[in-house]
Amino acid sequence: MSTAQPIPRVSLTWLLVAQALVIIPHLGHLPMWIIALWLGCAAWRVQIFRMRARYPNAWAKVAMMLGAGVGVFLSRGSLIGLDAGVVLLIAAFILKLVEMRTRRDALVLILLGFFAVVTSYLFDDGIVAALFSLLPVIALLAALIGLQQSAFASRPWPTLRLAAGLLLQALPLMLLLFLFFPRLGPLWSLPLPKDQGVTGLAESMAPADIAELSQSAELAFRVSFDGPLPPRAALYWRALTLDRFDGRRWSQSSGAEFAPAPAWARRGPAYGYSVIMQPSAQRWLFALDVGETDLPHTRLMGDFRLQRNQPVQRALQYRVSSWPQALREPQASPATLRRALQLPADGDPRSRAWAEQLRQRYPQPQALVQALLGQFHDQPFRYTLRPPPVGVDSIDGFLFDTRSGFCAHYAGAMVFVLRAAGIPARVVAGYQGGELSESGNYLQVRQFDAHAWVEYWLAGQGWVSVDPTFQVAPERIEQGLEQALAGEQSFLEGSPLSPLRYRNIGWLNRLRLGWDNLNYDWQRWVLGYQGEQQLQLLQGWFGRVDSRDLVLVMVGGGGAMLGLLALWLFQPWRRERDVQQRLYRQFELLLARHGLQRAAGEGPRDFAERACRLLPAQAVAIRAFGQAFEAQRYAGRSLPSAELRRHLRHLRRALPWRLTRA
């Protein structure tokens, strides 16, 4: 392909279409000036093609490049990082359109476009994004085909059909590579784009934080159990433990991060399940108590949460085995107990005085806990997402004045009173419940399922979990947040278009659950298809074999398969190096089936003229092939070999199956 040849019109057309399709998935995280830049550069490129504008000179190129760099810096605050890098890539992809002069430049632009398509998966790897990415790929392939100067490539729609056909032909090979090529872990980890909003629990909690999560329908994770689903009241998904209180917020103390793994003993039934967790930008994982996982670089922390070494920046699939009735840390360390008794030096005097009264009335910790839960059940406490303000002393204001709140209010107040009464306690933050899928084989847990509960410590019995919210609004635990808020109609009130608000409409709810089931399968079998899943699948087919031997067999078998495929496609044993001579040989064989043999020393023109006399009905087709062969073979005309093939096909159609002579 000569670099001096101009860019064909059809290729330029598909390049413009491809650029628009490449940019569309990035619109949610690109600055608006990128859109204006593309519109300006596209219009400029069209005017250049119509010879109404000139190419930019060196100074103009430098100015545009510097302007793009300044724009990225002003909009992203840096030229380094994932967000800035993607914007720079898209800007270079656009600017190259104006600078493009030759086919070589167009080829560089097409390859840059393929790379830009891949970067869109850093922001959205869902099934819709994956299907849409096929459109810019087809358009880029059409632009690549259009670079070839031929009568076929000069027409846009046949070019597009050929590009789509090539993509379809590549699908079987892509599936084979996906299934059998060894799954390698990433060589590096990319951070979550900072402008991609992630809702979820944080390392500290105030009641307003849980209220905000309760208005979000974003997915937190999906989970499928190996056996029967546990009762909804047992679905307490621990995320982290909060053991420090400053008077307004609960947070995790620094000592908890370095505490050794706690002692615990398995008791009661075990649950095995698989979790697909959405990106959270946090290191903790979600699991029922007490959870064990074989996920690499993950361990059980001192407060019984599962935590990875690195934050969860992409959808993560892992397996857990849990024992909810396990005996947890029956002999706690003094440091752990000190953290579980910490309170501010002053504040909330009424709550402290009430805790002292309870301690004197109920000297046994378990009796005091039951009395406190009974107070929440018997007194006029109310569950609501619209609590009135509580003032400076937040615990006092809630317990004695407003008596209205949600899980964070009840859990925080109960832990405060227990600590003031001398009982070690802490707040557990996570999620409770989940919605069963239409197929019934997995749960989907959303941000509005965020929940806080209490665990307190007893000597010899370890940590015991209780939920004061259940005493006030049992329907929150047994049925869900929507049922608990049915009276005040505050469920997802900030999202009137959310389909979750219309679960009472049968067909709409079935459509929503069906779509969610499709996304679950996509995450489980495509995004979650990693080394362990691949090994299990292949061992199920080929038996229990060593993973290293299996990799060697797959690599060797894949190489042999590709070699056989190449032999079948190219068939080198049937091809002569001289294409013209091979086609002329087919011409001779075709006429030989009708009784015409080329004599020794007879030239192509003489042979063609003799054939025209003997087959006058096919004379036009015979003469057309002979003239085309002479033009290419002897006159030095650089006609494409496709033209010679076309004349040969016409002759084959013109000749009858059998030659009849008078």
Can you walk through the features of this model?
With 662 residues, this protein is an alpha+beta fold. It folds into 4 domains: 9-180, no CATH class; 204-502, no CATH class; 531-572; 576-654, no CATH class. 49% of the residues lie in helices and 12% in strands. It has a 6-stranded antiparallel sheet with strand order 9-12-7-2-18-17, covered by helices on one side. A 4-stranded antiparallel sheet has the order 3-16-19-20. It has a 3-stranded antiparallel sheet with strand order 1-5-4. It is elongated. The chain crosses the membrane at residues 58-74, 80-98, 105-123, 129-147, 159-181, 550-570. Keywords: Membrane, Transmembrane, Transmembrane helix. InterPro entries: Bact_TGase-like, Papain-like_cys_pep_sf, TgpA-like_C, TgpA_N, Transglutaminase-like.
How many helices?
Answer: 25
Shape: elongated
* Spatial extent as radius of gyration: 36 Å
Unreliable residue stretches = none
Give the N-to-C terminal Cα separation: 53 Å
Structural class: alpha+beta
Helix percent reads 40-55%
Mean pLDDT: 84
- The share of residues in extended strands comes to 5-15%
Overall number of strands = 20
Tally of domains: 4
Biggest sheet statistics: 6 strands, antiparallel
Strand order of the largest sheet: 9-12-7-2-18-17
